[in-house]
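Following up on my earlier thread - several people asked me to post the actual chain instead of describing it. Fair enough. Here it is, all 167 residues.
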Amino acid sequence: MRSLVLIAHNLRSAHNIGSLLRTAEGLGVDKVYLTGYTPYPSSPDDNRLPHISHKVNRQIIKTSLNAEKTIDWQHVSNVSKPLNDLKRNGFSIVALEQSEQAVQLPIYFPPDKLALIVGREVGGIEKQILDRCDQIVEIPMIGQKESFNVVQAAAMALYTFRFCDSK
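Reply from S.P.:
Thanks for posting it. Predicted structure:
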């Protein structure tokens, strides 16, 4: 089975993080990196002020339903560290972003190790990060709206990478 990693970079919403953790857990993602200013659950080595950590944690568990306790996750301030580590360990880095360079899902990815990166709810993934990715993918839109919520989009992409790859 393919090894899947999710990187959530510079997301604002703790509720989105809770939903991403729950979705990732349900789809068998091996690890979730919460990078940049992305909110993250409380942890034993948490260096945030206790009232801030508690407030953010309450918001996350509202939608995660305690998935943060059953999935491997890590908060890393600088996204370069997990990107470098994953590439060094043979992962292909795939950005989920609307871009002229994007290929529409579904698409076949041969590597056994794939890391999906999703970015800011409004602004998307920064160009300097997109430049480091092996592939950019997007979800085709049929209706009037131009994009999906970051959690919905991540769920569709992760599901595709887990179950729908075909040559």
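Helices lie at 14-26, 50-64, 80-88, 127-130, 150-163. That should answer part of your original question.
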